[in-house]
Write a structure and sequence with these properties.
Number of strands: 15
Order of helices and strands: EEEEEEHEHHEHEEEEEHHEEHH
Bound molecules: fe (ii) ion
CATH architecture: 4-Layer Sandwich
Strand order of the largest sheet: 1-2-5-6-7-8-9
Strand content: 15-25%
Number of domains: 1
CATH superfamily: Ribonuclease Z/Hydroxyacylglutathione hydrolase-like
Structural class: alpha/beta
Distance between the termini: 52 Å
CATH class: Alpha Beta
């Protein structure tokens, strides 16, 4: 069994407390289960999903490994769906801590699984991760992974906050794992974006994509970005968009999400919270305590 040497995650790197409320895995398609976590619920004006996915096909796949601050519940949820010894593939969409947060534990618990990633993730995590080369599978944008009863396509989403990012598309179910893309805050837990107020969704969606991809305002929209979005629009098999930071997007909302995504380069830079906002938050928290 390989050994791993990921560093202990600093308590202040992510909210140290696990989410206040447990939301059990949600089946979104045949043999596709969303591992749900909602960070900030009940503690902040808006909350953010930190999801991952399990595809329980002939050769089960874990797609991203969640954040470290809810490790025990995350492992319980994942292994309530699939036996760790049956897991054959661990797909990491990119090397951000809310996606690799339990990678070390999964690699150790699932000795029969191959770590599906890319050359560059391997390089970027090389100093942290002692995983034997034969246990890697490098996959690039457009490459296909045969997992026995279905073919999974590595498909980079139109927006991303990390150069290693790959989404994962399962044409057999129509489920696209978009990694960070299509992210939105939520006012409270919802199982589907169709439960969100459309105006709230559009505003939160724009804010989130702008934060993820500050380069959107300098892309050549017609030549590059529009083509990237069109790949999804034109895919007749795309039925469900899901990802780490959004409730599932289904039905008519798929088209609406793609329409929102197509507009992003024209939105201009987003305004990020400033020190005055932090001061206000701290004052409000102190007033609550006093
Ligand atoms: Fe990310
Ligand atoms: Fe993320």
């Amino acid at each position: 069994m390989p050994t791993t040497r990921l560093p202990a995650v600093r308590a202040d790197a992510m909210p140290a407390q696990p989410p206040a409320v447990h939301h059990p895995p949600l089946q979104i398609a045949p043999e596709a289960f969303l591992i749900q976590q909602l960070h900030g619920e009940g503690m902040a004006p808006v909350a953010v999903n930190v999801n991952s996915l399990v595809i329980r096909g002939a050769e089960p796949v874990i797609v991203d490994t969640g954040a470290p601050n809810n490790r025990e519940q995350w492992l319980t949820d994942v292994f309530s769906i699939v036996d760790p010894l049956d897991v054959r593939w661990i797909f990491l969409s990119h090397d951000d801590v809310d996606h690799y947060g339990n990678l070390e534990q999964v690699l150790e618990a699932c000795p029969n699984a191959v770590f599906v990633t890319s050359f560059f993730i391997g390089e970027r995590m090389g100093v942290l991760l002692d995983n034997p080369l034969p246990r890697f599978r490098w996959i690039n944008d457009g490459d296909v992974l045969d997992v026995g009863d279905r073919l999974l396509v590595a498909a980079r989403p139109p927006v991303y906050d990390n150069p290693t990012t790959r989404g994962l598309f399962d044409a057999s179910t129509g489920v696209y794992w978009a990694s960070d893309a299509f992210a939105t805050p939520v006012p409270s837990f919802v199982e589907n974006v169709d439960e969100l107020d459309p105006g709230f969704w559009a505003e939160g969606f724009a804010q989130f994509q702008g934060m993820l991809s500050p380069w959107l305002s300098i892309v050549d929209n017609e030549r590059w970005y529009a083509q990237d979005v069109a790949k999804l629009v034109d895919d007749p098999d795309l039925r469900i968009i899901t990802g780490a930071h959004t409730p599932p997007i289904t039905g008519a909302k798929v088209g609406e999400a793609l329409e929102l995504m197509s507009r992003m380069p024209a939105m201009g830079p987003v305004r990020l919270p400033e020190q005055a906002d932090l001061d206000g938050m701290l004052a409000a928290m102190n007033a609550k305590v006093a």
